[in-house]
User: What shape does this take?
Amino acid sequence: MPTTDVYREAEKRWRHSLQEPGEELIDFELADDRVRRVDVAADAPDWLRGAQLYALCGVDGFRFLRCPFSPEEELRWSHAALAAWTEPEASESNLDLTHAGERGALWAQHEAAPSSSALRHLSWVTLGYHYQWSERRYDEARRSPFPPALGALGADLGRAVGQPLRPEAAIVNYYAPRSSMGGHCDDAEPCQDAPIVSLSFGLSATFLLGGPSRHAAPLAMRVRSGDVVVQGGASRGCYHGVARVLRGTAPARLREAASAGGGGGGGDDLRGVAEWLERGRININVRQVGPEAGWDEDPDAAAAVLAGGRRCRDDG
Ligand SMILES: O=C(O)CCC(=O)C(=O)O
Ligand SMILES: [Fe+2]
Assistant: This one.
C-alpha cells in the first residue's frame, strides 16, 4: 500500500508552477487530447443552449463550462458575493469570530475606506445550510434562506450539464493573489449523488482535481473568470483544491463593462467590483445537502440525515 501523499507533492509543484516532464496544465481554451467537447442537455435553459461544455476523458461526471456569462453578469454575481451575501442575515463568515462588530455593510465600508475595511479579512461566507468547519458537518439549526437567484442559477447550470441539483448550501471563498486552498474532498453532504457546481470570478487560478484518495496524482487546469466547474458522478468524491491564484489575470472586459456602466447595479458600484476582481478571486460553490425534496421538513428527521454524512478516504 503506497503511503506517499501524491496529491500534496503535486500541489507543492503547481504552487510554484513547476511542471514535471509530461505533466501539463489543461487549458480548456486550447486543444488537448485529455479533453472532449460535450453537448449541453436537451432541456438546458435557453441562455445556456450555446455554452461550451467539456468533459475530461476517464473522469466520470466532471464537467467544465467555459464562461457562459456576459461581463455585466460576472460583475453582478460578484457584487452579490461582496455585498448582499456578506450581510450577517444572509451568511455565516470567518469574520464572525474576529470582526463581529464590523460584519454589517462590509461592501459599503470597503467603498468608503478600502485600505481599512474588514472586507480585507474576509475569506469565506456560507449560505443556506451553513457548513460547520470544525465538525465538518451541517447543523439543522444553522441555516439562512438560500439566495433565490443563486438557487435558480445553480439549478440552471446543473440541468444544462445533465446533472440536476437542488441548491441548499453554498460556500463562497474570497482569495487574494498567490493564495491557495489545500486539497480536500467535500464529504459533509449526506447527498453525494448531486454535483457541486462551482463558479469563479476575477483572477485566474490553477485548480487541481485528484482521485478518491491522496495517492492519485491530480490533473491541473486553468480556471478563469466566469468558468464553471462541475464535480458530479465519481468526481464528486475526488480530492481537489486550488494550487495558486494568479496575480494580474483578471480579464479587461470586467473593467470595460463597469466603466460603460453596465449591469444596472449602479456604475460606481460595479467599478468598485471590477477593481476588487483585479486583485482577488471569488469562488461560489453550490451544493445539495439532503436526499429527496422535503427531507428537511421535520427538524428531527433532518438532524438525523445531517448526522449521517459520508467520510472521504484520507489514507494518505
Ligand atoms: O476555489 C475553488 O475553486 C474551490 C473551492 C472548494 O473546493 C471548496 O470551497 O470546497
Ligand atoms: Fe471543495
About this structure: The helical segments are 6-15, 71-82, 95-98, 106-112, 148-160, 252-259, 267-278, 299-306. Residues 13 and 36 are 26 Å apart (CA to CA). The mean pLDDT is 94.
